[in-house]
Amino acid sequence: MTDVNDLNPEKVRQLIANAWSALDPADRAERFAHDIEHGVPGVTMHPQGEAIEFVRGGRTLALVHRDLLCGDGPLDADAEFVADDIDADIERLLDEDNTNGGDNE
Questions:
Q1: Sign of CA dihedral 47, 87, 90, 29
Q2: Does residue 72 fall inside a structural domain?
Q3: Sheet with strand 44-48: strands edge to edge
Q4: What's the half-sphere exposure (Cβ side, CA atoms, 13 Å) at 41?
Q5: Domain containing 82: what range?
Q6: 3-class DSSP state for residue 65?
Q7: Is residue 75 part of a domain?
Q8: 12 in Cβ contact with 73 (< 8 Å)
Q9: 28, part of any domain
Q10: Short-list 57, 58, 53, CA closest to 28
Q11: How many domains does the chain have?
Q12: Which pTM value belongs to this model?
C-alpha cells in the first residue's frame, strides 16, 4: 500500500481541480456553504484502504486508488472518479464480500 506521504502534490491538486470544475455551479455553491456553516477548511482527504476519498461540502468529491496519485507525469484522466460517478452507497462498493454482482438486496 502506498503511504499518503508518497502522493504527488501536483496530481492531488489536478484531481481536486478536475473534480471541482466538473460539478455544476449550484452543487459547488451548496458545498461551499456547507463548509462555511460547519467550519470546514475546504477539501479533506480520507484514506479508505487502497483508495483515497476527497470530501468537500460533506460529500464525496472524488475517490481514486492511491497509487494513481504517486510518481511523476500527469494524472491519467481515466484514473479519477468524480462525485456524479460514485454510487451513493460507498460502503457497498467497498464491500469485499459482495458476491452477487453489486445487488445487495
A1: positive
A2: yes
A3: 44-48, 51-56, 59-65
A4: 2
A5: 4-94
A6: strand
A7: yes
A8: no
A9: yes
A10: 57
A11: 1
A12: 0.71
